[in-house]
């Protein structure tokens, strides 16, 4: 039997196993796999929503996922710059700061 990919952090898997299960099977196993949007477009939508709502605990993961899904650093910077005028300067600055750290870490590790 093939083991399913897990997206929920291990601490959540242990503490709230049902939440972890629906995160893995419903959110990432169904919603993210729907054909109506590409993973790249879903990532761009998700990053901008999380940045606009100041959901920084989830933002770092999704910035990295967006890069994996083909959204470029420059596209993310542009989206977040645009977002500053609609969702607030602090939200955009925080998101760009997280993106910068992720890009720098990625460049250092390979």
In short:
This protein is an all-alpha fold.
Number of strands: 0
Mean pLDDT: 95
| Radius of gyration from the alpha-carbon trace, in angstroms | 15 Å
Runs in which pLDDT lies below 50 for 5 or more consecutive residues are none
Question: Sheet with the most strands?
Answer: none
**Dominant shape:** globular
The fraction of residues assigned to DSSP E strands is under 5%
State the end-to-end distance: 33 Å
Class of secondary structure makeup: mainly alpha
Helix amount: over 70%
List SSEs in N-to-C order: HHHHHH
Number of helices: 6
Structure, explained:
The chain has 110 residues and is mainly α. The chain has six helices and no strands. Helix 3 (39-52) runs parallel beside helix 5 (73-87) and helix 5 packs antiparallel against helix 6 (89-109). The longest helix is centred in the last third of the chain and has 21 residues, at 89-109. It is globular. The model has no long low-confidence stretch (mean pLDDT 95). This is Carboxymuconolactone decarboxylase family protein. Residues 17-100 form the Carboxymuconolactone decarboxylase-like domain.
Which SSEs are present, and which pair or pack?
Blueprint: H1 10-15, H2 17-27, H3 39-52, H4 56-68, H5 73-87, H6 89-109
InterPro entries: 4CMD/NDH-1_regulator, AhpD-like, CMD-like
Domain Carboxymuconolactone decarboxylase-like: 17-100
Pfam families: CMD
Comma- or semicolon-separated keywords:
110 residues, AhpD-like, CMD-like, Carboxymuconolactone decarboxylase family protein, mainly alpha, 4CMD/NDH-1_regulator
């Amino acid at each position: 039997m093939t083991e399913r990919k897990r997206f929920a952090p291990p601490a959540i898997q242990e503490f709230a196993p049902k939440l972890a299960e629906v995160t893995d099977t419903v959110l990432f196993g169904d919603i993210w796999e729907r054909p109506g949007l590409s993973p790249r477009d879903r990532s761009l939508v998700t990053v901008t929503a999380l940045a606009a709502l100041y959901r920084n605990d989830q933002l770092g993961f999704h910035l990295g996922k967006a890069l994996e899904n083909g959204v470029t650093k420059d596209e993310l910077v542009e989206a977040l710059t645009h977002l500053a005028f609609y969702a607030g300067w602090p939200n955009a600055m925080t998101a760009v700061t997280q993106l910068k750290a992720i890009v720098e870490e990625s460049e250092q590790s390979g």
